[in-house]
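Handout, page 2. Input:
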Amino acid sequence: MPPRTVTFRAATAAAVIALGATLLAASPQAGAAAAEPAPVTDYCQGQCDDILPPGENGNATLVEILGNKAFGTHPAHSDDQLDRYNGLVAGHTGLTDQKLTEFFNDASFGVPKDQVESVTSPRDDVTITRDKASGVPHIKGTTRYGTEFGAGFAAGQDRLWLMDLFRHIGRGELTSFAGGALANQGLEQQFWPQAPYTEADLEAQVEYIRTHEGARGEQAMADAQAYVDGINAYRDKSKNGRYFPGEYVLTGKIDAITNVGEIQPFKLTDLISIASVVGGQFGGGGGGEVTAALSLLAAQQKYGVAEGTRVWESFRQREDPEAVLTVHDGTSFPYAGKPDKARGTALPDSGSVTAEPLIHDRTGSAGTDRKTPVKAPAALKKAQGIYDDGVIPEGSLPGSGSGAQRRGMSNALLVSGEHTASGNPVAVFGPQTGYFAPQLMMLQELQGPGISARGVSFAGVGMYIQMGRGQDYAWSATSAAQDITDTYAVDLCEPDGSTPTKDSTHYLYRGTCTAMETLERTNSWTPTVADSTAKGSYRMQVRRTDYGIVTHRATVGGKPVAYTSLRSTYRHEADSIIGFQMLNDPSYVTDAASFQQAASHIDYAFNWFYADSRTAAFYNSGMNPVRAADVDPALPVRAERAYEWQGYDPAANTAAYTPFAEHPHSSGQDYYISWNNKQAKGYAAAGFGLSAVHRGDLLDQRVSKLVEQGGVTRASLTRAMAEAAVTDLRGEQLLPELLKVIRSQPVTDPELNSAVQQLESWRAAGSQRRESSPGSHAYTHADAVRIMDAWWPKLVEAEFRPGLGDDLYGALTAGLATDESPAASHGPSGEHSGSAFQYGWWGFVDKDLRQVLGRPVKGPLARTYCGGGDASACRDALLASLKQAVAEPATAVYPGDDNCKAGEQWCTDSIVHRPLGGIAQKAIHWQNRPTYQQVVEFPAHR
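Output:
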């Protein structure tokens, strides 16, 4: 049994007993109505707001889809939050508390009688009331079962097609379900190997929660079953009533004329599949040790082992003393640091690494984008080919697509009451989860026995609010990405004792030659109205070991090994349900300390933030494995018992985990910011990029200034967020140093001098990527922005490549991309995705230029690269790269795509809500901002 569970039971035994005696008794499977619950007091008193564009309604009938394609019409509440979200770009400068609801929803509990749009009662123990303003479901149950049934029913009303998509993505069956578009092939090939399961594996995870988490675990699975029952009730009603999502017709699942066909029933195991996609995307951390090893080898080959290691460590920056921190009071939380003398490291032999093949037995269009359109009925012509580029175009889901980095999203700004105008904490926070139509999350309010909250839940796992507000508190999260995934080098063997090769399918586990388990998915597809991809099929195959999933093969010291990826949350995709249950329980969360305890029961790697009328607080969650002494978590390690996680049991993938006190946490600090930056001193970075310049600096500098001034309000904190959201990190943080080097001598080339002056003017104006006027679709400093977009990749290469050499430069950029501007032509996050400036060489450039300028640098690079350390040569390199950038036309910088013509700068940056169904949305102004966002200030407490 994991220590996390033991701690929970010891600390909360009385609460669990009480829970079992009350909530379980209040979960009838029949629909008998219970007494009306006591009225809920809303302690936010109108000071809680939220927003989730484009709109709550994510289902569209076939008629509504065809209307959208033919006339641009939208179903009710499918786009009514879009303009308010977009309007903050222009409206934030004059924002007041009174104007907040011009840009956000009123997130108060309940619906005033004159604002009720509809009331549905799918059972007699629950009502779903939707408000006129946004159509958000306010679910109120008189029994626990009824409440959760209503949540499932409302999820069906708002996200049925989306939930179906994501259960098939999680199961590795997307192409068979939605079509063989090349992007669909890529998506399932990227996701399924991260969490491959058999049906028995999924069922075991359900049973594990039910049997290992006491009364709360039993209640969680009862709640989940009620939720699934509600989904299936809506599925049946909509199918029989012919108002089901039209995508089922367009993908050939149901005949529009005869209604013949089926929407497959949902099961509890589908929720595990969906949780694996959501948690893996936004709550993972670590991994990538093979790529790290290859860059280390490249450094050692260039400089020798000792110097190469020193150079590599200076780029790896596990503990950069200049990195912006969430806990900035000096408190240290040591974890996953570099050992003084590492044991068990398993670096591959040079040139021996090969990726484990995933795809086998391709037929037809597999691996291609070949189309053979079907002859569509005339009535469906307008919707033909809506999925030809995939149900989720490549790269638009965070962490997916070519060159994808570890996902890391979301931001948070909190100020303690000591520094606010009211004396109560103020918070502006939310998750960045990409932009889709409909969104991956849905807004809802849940009120029932043991549940009282409003906020968002990921569609398909919405039994509880995952981020939102309770009666007198609010909470949110950012992706943390601490190291909960390790790479092991397993020695290969042959069962007959013969000499193994890299292709061997047996490995040594604690001295025994053991067969790898083979997991497979065979998918096939034929063209439909929605997806014209020609008929095809393939088989996906992964090998599973007791040390995780095989990702690569190599030799180590001449002997063949398989590199495996072991994630602590594998086989525990939905265990976090216990923490979410606690966060929704008003009897459990009563203050910052109880919130932190609830958050500690969430196994994925997240930074959790909390605010009530008295306290702002923070807690970093995650199943942080306790590693063997002196193992280096940044590199592959030998798969031997001496180097395993402490207490490791492969049967259920359990181990010893770090206790509550060792996770970064804080309560009552003057302010908190998070934008996927480093959490605290000592908490080692799990990958490259947490350095001296980070997008978290855009928040930290603004919030610290507000705190210094005092009198912070909801509006002023929102303004700080909104200003950072349209600011170019390179312009604000790095352009001053670049200009300092360039202006060290007169710029005699008139064209270059003009470009430098444009950059200086842009920097003086705030380095913003913002329209000259609302709707102009042209930036105020358009030329300067274009120059920076063209220059940055060139200047990084000019600064570092000559000194590092081609091989090492290539290996380091494979671990961390050089740029992530909002422009579609840059970076790994995908075009039109909003989130920007997380991944890049910002910190490397900053440290290197300060070294050139002779300024103090804490945690410097091992060598100075720009111009070989000579200021004049550095200046020449920067000017030469700038000259190339100036000469590059806008049509080359912004080459155009399906949404924009070549050269359209604003459009290239713009956010496009990628349609996951048949309804498209207009593009909006770029903002580097949470998708769902809350602005909260509680004036009172229970």
